[in-house]
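#dry-run=false #mode=assembly
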Amino acid sequence: MKKFVKITLISLGSLVGLALLVIVVALWVVFTPARLTSIVEKQLPNFVTCEASVERVELTFFSSFPRLGLQVDGVALVNAMEGAPSDTLLSLDRLHAAVDVRAFLRRDELRLSDVVLSGGTACLFTDEEGRTNYDIVKPAAEEPAPVPEEGGFALSHIDLNALTVENLDILYVDRGAGMDARLPGISLTLQATMDGDDMAANLSVNRFDGAFSMGAADHLSPDAQLAASVENVAFDLRGTLRGEVASVEDFQLDGSNLTVAYGGETYLSGAPISINVVAEADLASQKANIRTAELRLHSLPLSVDGTVSNDSLRNGIDTDLHYRLADWPVEKLLSLVPPAFAGMLEGIEASGLLSSEGTVKGLYAAATAATVTTGNDAAATTAAIASMPTVDANVTLRGGNVRYPAMLPWPLTGVEADLDILTDLTDEGSKATVNSIEAHTPRSSVKARGTVSSLLSDPRAILSADLRADLADAKPFLPTNLKAAGRVSGRVNADARMSQLTNMRLDRMRLSGSLLASNLDATYDTIAVKTPSARVDFSLPNSSPTIPAATFASLTLTADKFAAQMGADAYATLDGTRLELETSNVMDTERTPAVRCDFAFANLAARMDDMSVAAVRPSGTVSMEPGRRGATQRLRVAYNGGAINGKMAATGSAVDQEGSANDIAAALEKLNIDATVVYDPAKEELWRKFIPRGKFAMEGFTATVPSLDYPVEVPTLAMDFTPRTFNIDRARVKLDESDFSLDGTVHNIVQYFRGDSILRAEFNFDSPVTNVSQLLALTSGIGGEEPEKPVATNGTSPACDTIAAAKPAPGTTVAKPETPKAPAPDEFSGPWMVPQGIDLVLNANIGKALWEGEPLFSNVNGEIWIRDGAVSITPQLTFDSPVTHGVVQLLYRTPDRNNLFAGVSIHLSDIEMQELISLVPDLDKTVPMLRSFSGKGEFHAAAEGYMDSTYRYKMSTMRAAASIAGTDLALKDEEMLRQIAFLLKYKDEGAIRVDSMRAELTVFRNEVDVYPFLMKVDRYGVVIGGRHNLDMSFDYNISLVESPLPFRVAVDVKGTPDDPKFKVFSKSRYPDFYRPRYEGVVESREMELRNIIRGSLISTQPTPAQAPQPSPAQQAPQPSTQQAPQPSPAQQAPQPSPPQR
Amino acid sequence: MKRILLYIAAAAMASLAVTSCGLGGEDFNEEFLYSGGGEWVSTQDVGDGPQRIHDIFRADGSGTSAAEGDIPQAFTWTLEGDRLSFEHIIGMGGTVPKDYTVTTLTETSLVYRDNYGKTISCTKL
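#status=ok
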């Protein structure tokens, strides 16, 4: 056995020695480095197209035992290309590989080990036309592939035990893509096995620093659009390739730092990055399945899984990825913001955790050109087609806090957001759903939800926000002169685009909401409002406008209590407030605004300076809208309400509760107004500018003013008005003792203002008691204007109707027109000017008429006309007084303040003579002898004349005629009468009784002519006649025509009442009067004149069918008191009918 | 018979005498009143001091009268013999008749007086 062993060992040793010998010989003798080098250099051109060289090639055996090694030193591949950074494609200091010869020889397996590429550079270059410097392998077509002979060399398994790259500098330049990459000092280890088509590999790359740039002409130029560098790159890759399926079973990159710059701006600077990927790819279908990919950048994790495949049909990349990032600290994200953008975030402090999860699905295809042919049209259209995958992401933010003092005066805390974002990077396909977003300030919060679409163009947000705000938080955003406190809560809905918000196009937005304000206290300048609770509902636009044009917005405000103050002296308190406001876009200055406000209050109280008003349940509408024609505007005011009380302190002092005598106070129980005014700014005249129409009614109105000692009461008033008519349905007024009702209609309002017609009105005036003097004082001058110069009739000059004053005679006085002076509104300083330009009929029915508080007449019935500057009572006004029954006609005209015309016709029956004087005081002056009579008689008179502004008669205009008749009269026992009786030999000692008397008298200017009349006293008949002047001087003749005496006696009485002169036995002027047999021409003429006078008076006593009209001369417009040319006959006022000749 | 004839003659003379007296005195030409515009002016004190009174006579028997500065008021007039009669018209009804005796009436001058001795002298404008 030992021998056997010995022999065996010796044999083996011999064999080994022989083998060693053979190897030594082969290595050192046959395959010397020189020979091998020469062989390789000769063979290289057969394999590569570029210049190639090696310095030394040698085989190793012992150093790589048991494998056979090949070591090549000084490998160089030179392939010069224009523009390439270097001619040398590859330069290696050493290339070493060991082959398992036995496996190669026995099993046709190529087992490589200890493959080392040590030291050197690689420069890979692609020019702009896509030619590369590394395409150096000779094409197979040029050299037919070796066909393995039977039993020849065919590798079925390649095992790369270890490939080590040591310190290799790699430079890659692609000018076509503008891409440069430099990987200096690469060291890596690769283990790989290939079995047929299957391959497994482990790659471990040691740390190195790499750089990458894109978009620059020169590699790594600072002008590069995209530049990236990685420091400390080291990764491990374990993967397999089975058939067409490549699997990355593990890829780990850790501890590297990434720097990325784009457009010269650094976005990441040494950001720590780690990547862990498990994926597989089907090379045939060009589809990659990322089972898991985890990326950490600055420790921010991002995980991705899904598939990515090449869609050759659509020339794009089809994606179906799912990603997830969780709890990214916002503050860290902000720290990653590049410095160039950091300024935008300066001062912003934010925190919170940002998470997102979503999918990326769809085709990514870059824009390509497509040709579309339509029908027979040969024209082709080129369109860019691009496709982006759809990103469906859910983004959440939890525990967010934001502090940005520059914009937000308070920190935002508790910011929570939950958004779903769907986008394919097209405007139509991009949409965000705000599931919720919430933020808080120290005293306010807002929570919103909704959607945002058109993210990539003009985002449209449809949001609904719940707001709880303390207005103190809004202080920094409010003008300095606006201060607000209180809380506001509610919901606001918005539908608006970003462009609309930017341009404040409120007319394009949709906003609505309902806000509840509590303890609101706001002050703007001097205006302050306060309410404990108010609710505001608003809507833009107004979907259901009450007036057509008010489509812009609607707002409803309700508040239990509301207080407003303006300055220190004006404030209002409102209970149960409800305001409904509609409006058009008032910021549109090119259109007439349309605004409507319905208001309703339970109570309203307001005070301004020394005025105060309180109203119960006021409600109504105020609106303004475009009219139907042109640029007109239609204004409407409607009011319905209960009691209103108002007060104003006349002295300007504050209104106190008790009030004072100087206060103006008004109150009413009910008020209803519904009025519209069409406003046409294009019209010039006021009556065309404003066209009113409406109704007005009130009840229980009372007012007290300091200038009146009595309250003004209007128990009821209802009226309506149109542009043409003004109708008083009912009106009852109480003024002190006056109590009257008024109803009627005013016509021709528009025509009046247009100048086509005078104002016509007819009213019924019913009154149990009327204080006439008070009414005259209150109505003095209504409608009148400045005193007018008389206007000529028939188109003539007004001066033509005036007696010329141009040539006053020396020594004469020309009356100068008195300067007109308007009376104060609350005092009757006179004269009372008749309203101008109206035709008013007042059907008066007055139970008791008072003058200055004293009873004047009773049962006054008649029509009172006010016609174009004149007042007339027509056809008659009947009245009763305690002393008589009367019929009166009156005409009062006020052509100017210095020519006041008064005409009167009065018929009194059964009146006591002394009462007659008291009723008509002027009779005492004109007929002084009446003072001496007592008893009843009848009185007929007509008179006219002009007065000046102080109601002083102008004697030159006085005209009057009177007829007085009486029976059974008594003459008073007066000194003058006693003297006359004595002179006439009348000896009756008792009172002088006058059986009958009838006298006619006239007044012409200052002359009072008493036409001879017969007075029967007992057996005496006395004819009295004569004249006295208004200066009380007289000239009478008293003739005794009947007496027991056998002779005639006459007495002349001249002088004045205080100094009468008697002339006894003077010649009787009337010896034959009332003695028909003896009447001569003179007597007849005197009697004729008397009959003319009486006849004219009696015949004019009105009947109901008659209506006194101003005489033609009276109707004539009045002349000026100024100088005037001489009037021609034709220019004179219309004249009365001439007498028959 | 003589006595009868004497009575008749006496009655006829008396009649003529009475008729003559009834017609007044001198006849005046009324055309002077209204010719040349018919406007006469006089100075009178009618209660407010001396004033210039303008009277306008028209041929149809109408006229107006007014002090300077006042508004004219209408009248009618007649001239029979030397009796100048006015009827000043009151618009409300009634008239104021006034009779005067003309003493002078020429183209430019008019003088008349009333029964109470008041004389008014006018000159034509």
